[in-house]
Amino acid sequence: MKLTHAALVLVATVMIAHEGRCQGQESLLFELATDARSAALGGAVMADLESDVHGSGLNPCFLDTSIQGDITIDYIDYFAGVGMTAVNYQLLPKGKWNLQVGARFMNLGTFSGYDAAGNTTQDFGGGDQMVYFGTSRAIDSVWTLGIQGFIGSRHLNREVAGWLGAEAFLHARWKSKRIATGLALTGAGYQWGLKGSQPTGSLPFNVQLALTKGFKNAPFRIFLKAQNLQTWDLAPPGTYDDTVDPITQEVTTNSTFKFGDQLMRHVTIGTAVSAGGSMEIWLGFDYRRRTELMATDRLSGNGLSFGAQFEFGKFAMRIGRLRYHFAGASTHIGIRFNPRKFTRS
């Protein structure tokens, strides 16, 4: 019965968010995986076999009472002066509820200002920021329910917008079978255009379904995730159209396997390989990123990602590298520590 109620809550949240959707503007705060591990595995991890404070900033079901007081700091060096910092802190639990607070800050860089006549004015900056509060509770030995609320804003010179929203998560973990699965609704909320031409309306949301599988006699795990399930066709208009030669008018049939291409644009895949008690190596692939950001005859390594984690002393370090386009790559760096371990005995 408890599981049924949890599923109904999640479904109801999706239906509410679907009403009057997609008038607000997207933000990389919701699109980018802040954690280096999630990024290296192809995108935000929504199903995991273990708890993870870094990952709990994206899914509070990963909170664990055994890691109370841990702090994580993650930084993303994106493109052209754009960067993001995320901080997550696990609070003491309240009864059966695990709690966390965190924040994400994105710097959009510096822009040159011009007036209506084209004359140079002073430079200005811009950015998105939000704070969030997340909680999760174990329904039984397998299922966990998570909820996260956020409030944030965007500023770009005289352009200002505010956000308010919530995210919902349902996670299951069968430890004996080394299987975990997760269902998530992220980024659901509302934007208010407070100043300038910023629109008012629902924020774009993301429905995600994930599966993680470990193996008894193998030192690796497989991470599969399907995202943007609220929309089947993610391809740009004209992707599957035939082409016509403007001179000869000869028609060239589009040979793309439409169903397979549409399906794979939802899918990311990653592998985590254990390299000892304190080290792990990650590899990931995002088909949609590779397909949409490729240039003619220059696929390069876009869509691929990799990373690793290791420990030294009282700190745990993570680093990930993602190839979005042949023009450059993005670096994710994260660190985890517990301030209580530095107090004098």
Features:
mainly beta, 17 strands, Porin, 345 residues, two-stranded antiparallel sheet, 14-stranded antiparallel β-barrel, 6 helices
Topology, pairings included?
Elements: H1 2-18, H2 28-31, H3 36-40, H4 53-56, E1 71-77, E2 83-94, E3 97-114, E4 120-138, E5 143-156, E6 159-174, E7 179-195, E8 201-202, E9 206-214, E10 220-226, E11 243-244, E12 251-252, H5 258-264, E13 267-274, E14 280-286, H6 287-292, E15 304-312, E16 315-325, E17 328-337
Summarize the structure.
The protein has 345 residues and is mainly beta.
Your description of this structure?
The protein starts with a helix and ends in an 8-residue tail after the last strand. The chain has six helices and 17 strands. It is mainly β and 345 residues long. It has one domain: Porin (Beta Barrel). The strands form two sheets. The protein has a 14-stranded antiparallel β-barrel. Strands 11-12 form a two-stranded antiparallel ribbon.
Which series of helices and strands comes N to C? HHHHEEEEEEEEEEEEHEEHEEE
Judging from the principal axes of the Cα atoms, what is the shape?
Answer: globular
CATH class: Mainly Beta
The CATH homologous superfamily is termed: Outer membrane protein transport protein (OMPP1/FadL/TodX)
Given helix and strand content, the structural type is mainly beta
Largest sheet: 14 strands, antiparallel, barrel
> Any guess at the CATH architecture?
Beta Barrel
CATH topology: Porin
What is the tally of helical segments?
A: 6
